[in-house]
C-alpha cells in the first residue's frame, strides 16, 4: 500500500490499525497536516463505500455487505432523521447492525425502565420496508439490533441474544455487554456490544471486563449452536479508551497532534504491549478525530466544567474464529489479515448530533466462497 494523504482512495480492503500501518501513515507529512486540522476544528466529513451501486438478488456468489454502527446516545432518542447515518437511498447493505450505549434513557433511569421499543420503532421507520428485524438484545441502557435486507432474510436462522452484567456486584447492567448470534448459510455470525468501565485510570479493569465478556459469549454461542463455535465476530462498543497523556483545555484550543494522541490511545498501547486484551482482534486504521467528549449539538470539544480528556472511546473490532487458532502475532498485533471477512471502511459520522459522543461505523464484506 502506498503512502497517501487520502487513504480512502486506496484499493480495498481498508488498512488495519497495527504497528505497520501506524508507522506508515504517521510519517506522511501531508496526511499529518490534514488530520491535525480536522482534529483542531472538528470539521471531519465521513465517507461511505458503495454509493449508488445497484443491488442484485443475493446468491452464494455474492459477498454479504454489512454496515455496523456503534453510538453512545447520551440518553436520547433523536427527534431528527438519521438518513445521513444509514444512507438507505444510496447504499445497499445486506445486514445492518446497530450497537448503542446509554440508549433512549440515562443509565440510572434505564435501571427502572429498560424497554427500547421507541428506539426500535424509530429504526424500523428509518430503514423502511426493505429491512426486517432479525433479533435484538438489551441490558440496562445498552441495546443491540440486527436488521437484514428482505433478499437475505430467507438465508438467516437461529437468531439468539446473550447478556452479561458487569456493574455493581456483577448484577447491575450499567456496565457489561450483550450479543446476538445468527446463522447465515451455515456460517455463524456473532455481533457484540459493550459499555466498559469509564475513567482515565481504568484500562486494566476494562481489559478484564472485555476478556470475561469474550469468554462468556464464546461459550454461550458454542452451547446454543450445538457445540459449534462462531465463524465471525464483530464487536461494537463504548470501550472508554482514553488518551494516556495530560491534555488541558488550553491544549485543545491551540494544539493538535493527531498521531501523537493516537499513539497514546490506551487500547492501542494495550495491544502493542501484548497485554491480555482483545486477543486476535482486528481494527481499522483510525483517520477520524476522537469521538468523545464533544458538545451535544455542536462539533466542539466540551471544555467547560465537565471537561474530559478526549478519547477514541467508540470502536468496532472484528475477527474470524478459526484464524485465531493459527495466527501468529508481532508486538500484540496479528500479522496476517483475515481471510473471509474484509473491512472496507471505518469512519465516524460527525453530522449526527445530540450526544457527547459521535457514532462510529464500519462497512464489511464477507465471502462464502
TrEMBL record:
GO terms for molecular function: phosphatidylinositol-4,5-bisphosphate 5-phosphatase activity. Residues 62-367 form the Inositol polyphosphate-related phosphatase domain. GO terms for biological process: phosphatidylinositol dephosphorylation. This is Inositol polyphosphate-related phosphatase domain-containing protein. It comes from Paramecium pentaurelia.
Amino acid at each position: 500500500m502506498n503512502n497517501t494523504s487520502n487513504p480512502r482512495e486506496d484499493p480495498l480492503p481498508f488498512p488495519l490499525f497495527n504497528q505497520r500501518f501506524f508507522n506508515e501513515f504517521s510519517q506522511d507529512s501531508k496526511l499529518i497536516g490534514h488530520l491535525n486540522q480536522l482534529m483542531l476544528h472538528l470539521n471531519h466529513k465521513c465517507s461511505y463505500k458503495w454509493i449508488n451501486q445497484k443491488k442484485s438478488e443475493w446468491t452464494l456468489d455474492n459477498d454479504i455487505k454489512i454496515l455496523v454502527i456503534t453510538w453512545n446516545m447520551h440518553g436520547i432518542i433523536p427527534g431528527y432523521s438519521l438518513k445521513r447515518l444509514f444512507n438507505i437511498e444510496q447504499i445497499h447493505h445486506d445486514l445492518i447492525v446497530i450497537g448503542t450505549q446509554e440508549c433512549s434513557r440515562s443509565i440510572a433511569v434505564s435501571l427502572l425502565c429498560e424497554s427500547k421499543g421507541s428506539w426500535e420503532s424509530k429504526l424500523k421507520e428509518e430503514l423502511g420496508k426493505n429491512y426486517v428485524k432479525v433479533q435484538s438484545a438489551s441490558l440496562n441502557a445498552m441495546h443491540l439490533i440486527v436488521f437484514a435486507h428482505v433478499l437475505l432474510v430467507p438465508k438467516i436462522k437461529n437468531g439468539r441474544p446473550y447478556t452479561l452484567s458487569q456493574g455493581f456486584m456483577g448484577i447491575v447492567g450499567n456496565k457489561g455487554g450483550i450479543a446476538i448470534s445468527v446463522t447465515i448459510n451455515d456460517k455463524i455470525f456473532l455481533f457484540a456490544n459493550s459499555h466498559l468501565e469509564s475513567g482515565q485510570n481504568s484500562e486494566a479493569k476494562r481489559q478484564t471486563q472485555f476478556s470475561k465478556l469474550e469468554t462468556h459469549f464464546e461459550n454461550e454461542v458454542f452451547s446454543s449452536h450445538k457445540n459449534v463455535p462462531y465463524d465471525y465476530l464483530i464487536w461494537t462498543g463504548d470501550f472508554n479508551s482514553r488518551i494516556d497523556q495530560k491534555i488541558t483545555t488550553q491544549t485543545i484550543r491551540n494544539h493538535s497532534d493527531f498521531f501523537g494522541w493516537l499513539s497514546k490511545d490506551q487500547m492501542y498501547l494495550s495491544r502493542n504491549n501484548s497485554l491480555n486484551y482483545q486477543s486476535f482482534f482486528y481494527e481499522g486504521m483510525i483517520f477520524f478525530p476522537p469521538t468523545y467528549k464533544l458538545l451535544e449539538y455542536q462539533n466542539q470539544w466540551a471544555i467547560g466544567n465537565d471537561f474530559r480528556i478526549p478519547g477514541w472511546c467508540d470502536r468496532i473490532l472484528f475477527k474470524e474464529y478459526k484464524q485465531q487458532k493459527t495466527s501468529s502475532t508481532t508486538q500484540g498485533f496479528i500479522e496476517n489479515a483475515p481471510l473471509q471477512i474484509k473491512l472496507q471502511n471505518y469512519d465516524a459520522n460527525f453530522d449526527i448530533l445530540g450526544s457527547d459522543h459521535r457514532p462510529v461505523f464500519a462497512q464489511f464484506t464477507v465471502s462464502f466462497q
